[in-house]
Design a protein that fits this description.
Protein name: Glutathione S-transferase
Number of strands: 4
Radius of gyration: 17 Å
Structural class: alpha+beta
GO molecular function, one term: transferase activity
Organism: Jannaschia seohaensis
CATH class of the largest domain: Mainly Alpha
InterPro entries: Glutathione-S-Trfase_C_sf (IPR036282), Glutathione_S-Trfase (IPR040079), Glutathione_S-Trfase_N (IPR004045), GST_Omega/HSP26 (IPR050983), Thioredoxin-like_sf (IPR036249)
CATH topology of the largest domain: Glutathione S-transferase Yfyf (Class Pi), Chain A, domain 2
CATH architecture of the largest domain: Up-down Bundle
Distance between the termini: 25 Å
Number of domains: 2
Number of helices: 8
Strand order of the largest sheet: 2-1-3-4
GO cellular component, one term: cytoplasm
Strand content: 5-15%
Helix content: 40-55%
């Protein structure tokens, strides 16, 4: 399989966490691409110009992180959507994914407006990030060591991306439970292997 990635995308990280936890690392070739550079082969694979994009072994092209996660869950265990407490797991993942969406919207919005952070849309996105983290503080996911699932994938991705991209504040200052949860994930192989970087 082949996966287009970049090194900062939180949506790429969600997929890479699944690849790591499912033991598929040796079966997926990673290709770093600049989505804003519009390379021809990448746009041919995904006209939307977004990462991640997976090409399967039988040459099917799957774009969008959640669709790729669905495919990976079909071909390899463990499932990241646990049947025994699926609703609780998804309810924890949802605000984390929302916070991540909001954070990426700000980064992209800044490309079109220097005032994006403080305009109506940017202000709402900041509120969404803070609210998403606050909800995680009250309903923590399982530790990776207990079980990898979409909730801890989404939580670690949201926390790390927001801290990585928005360095003007300590986002976890008033969230001691979430800070302690994130500290417990340090050293976990998939978490360390997928950290965002420039």
């Amino acid at each position: 399989m082949h996966l287009y990635i970049n090194t900062t995308s939180p949506f790429v990280r969600l997929v890479r966490l699944a690849i790591e936890e499912k033991g598929l690392t040796s079966k997926v070739e990673l290709e770093i691409v600049d989505p804003w550079g519009d390379p021809a082969a990448f746009l041919k694979a995904n006209p939307a110009g977004r990462v991640p994009v997976l090409t399967t072994d039988d040459d099917h092209i799957i774009a969008e992180a959640h669709l790729i996660l669905r495919y990976l869950d079909e071909i390899a265990q463990p499932s990241i959507f646990p049947s025994e407490d699926l609703a609780r797991t998804l309810s924890i993942a949802a605000p984390a994914l929302g916070a991540t969406e909001a954070a990426t919207a700000i980064i992209i919005g800044r490309k079109s407006s220097e005032a994006f952070d403080t305009d109506m849309v940017g202000s709402k996105r900041y509120r969404t990030m803070a609210d998403g983290l606050a909800r995680l503080e009250k309903a923590l996911p399982r530790d990776f060591a207990d079980r990898p699932d979409i909730a801890n994938f989404a939580a670690v991705t949201a926390v790390d991306y927001i801290v990585f991209r928005f360095t003007d504040r300590d986002w976890l200052a008033d969230l001691p439970n979430l800070r302690a949860w994130r500290d417990r994930q340090k050293g976990h192989p998939s978490v360390e292997a997928t950290m965002p970087y420039i």
